[in-house]
Please model this.
Amino acid sequence: MTQLPTSTAKQLGLVVDLDTCVGCQACVTACKGWNDQGGGLSDQQPYGADPSGTFLNRVHSYQVQPPDGAAQIINFPRSCLHCADAPCVTVCPTGASYKRAEDGIVLVNESACIGCGLCAWACPYGAREMDAEQGVMKKCTLCVDRIYNENLPEEDREPACVRTCPTGARHFGDFADPESKVSRLTRERGGFDLMPDLKTRPTNKYLPPRKKDVRQDASLLAPLLDIQATGFAGWLDKVLGKI
Amino acid sequence: MHPAPSVILFSTLSGMGLGLLAFLGAGLAVATGWTAFLWWGLGYALAVGGLAASTFHLGNPQRALLAFTQWRTSWLSREAWAAVAALLVLAPTALSDLFDLGLPRAVGQVGAVLALLTVFTTSMIYTQIRAVPRWHHWTTPVLFLSFAITGGAMLSGQGWAWVCLIALAPLLILAWRIGDGQFAKAGQTLGTATGLDRVGEVQVFEQAHTAGNYLLREMIFVVGRKHARKLRQIAVGLVAVLPALIMALAPLGPVSVAIAAALHLGGALAQRWLFFAEAEHVVGLYYGKRGS
Model:
């Protein structure tokens, strides 16, 4: 059903910490690895001249120039934000795209997808990619087949990208619970939405990079460097300065 | 946006066909026998042919019937319903015209409204998308409906069709003028897309991937925009000016209408190509790809 639920019992999603992310692409690889099961995420000419493939998560690198201080490199993972007002869901003509009332996860029922691509057009964030081999739309499932999977050890019941992140830059939890880790992080670190003007009400939040230390422009040795010549050297300095 | 030939063909041909069917259904051009057969046949051929072309870009066309299920929220689903309803409701009037059965015109007039409603639903598929600011504007449905009405007036041989044709010129220019400022008006930048505008000025340091992907192919189409200005001039000439001159000055007949319609169709295809090629999706911001 492409009508969005008015509210969801849980609001599962991710917090991505732009301060901690080092851009190692481990989340990209882990995501591809886990979601390559079953229907999978196809690649076209992966070892050929013009390789291309389906990914649910991409990590960009940006250079940001603050008004004062040096430029910073900020790595920016981009994947589905599981929006409360997901425009990708309402445009779907077949009902293949839907948002779950129980936990807010936005999913695609691939057996009902006609591959028209309209949902990918509707998403401002580029979260959906059409699988060129299967002709159906692929997107982040928040690893719905991991987070409720009782066959996995408890510590593995979180999305593959979160589980693998070596710097702990990705956090998974329920935003509907104000005391959850993700809610507290968002509150305490000033978590923000991407393109809020587009009225998608994203669930996932991004944490801004912390303020960097200010570089000391003056050398600590400066007082020692201010040497005043005295005596003969002082006279020589004065004479040579006048010539 | 990637200008897929199937979608360009679909929206242009079906719009023209539905416009013609609307004029025939409403009784603004009444004929019997072979003339009726040719008119209705052309209308149905264009509309159905266009709809068939639209399935070519689907990944799994065998499931296309499912597209009738989500009419409550999806304009694409509403379009499917409106198209089928228009084609079915107009069929008795077509038969009545063909064999002079004398069916009340009111039935055809309902069909005419449904035909234009179908064109409107098509236009709303694009208009609803906030992520493509150029499309997200009232000029989109106005343009689609104007093209359908003009095409219908011309193909059904209305003496005043040249007025519609020449009126398309300022409308096209206005839509381009407004459209050119829509992305800036939406206010989205690499800074808002990443939220890093709160830190400083953002620019792309390194792309997320070195190879191409679906997003770059489908949504971030930058090739060819450089010829946009020339193509716009050609489109205005072919869509509006030349066919208007022919319809206004040449003696009205099948030959003059056919020549005018062929020129108009060529221009409409150019206009529709620009409609996609010039439309920028906000996802391009993440890649630092904004055309100009």
User: Anything to note?
Assistant: The mean pLDDT of chain A is 93. Chain A has one domain: 12-207.
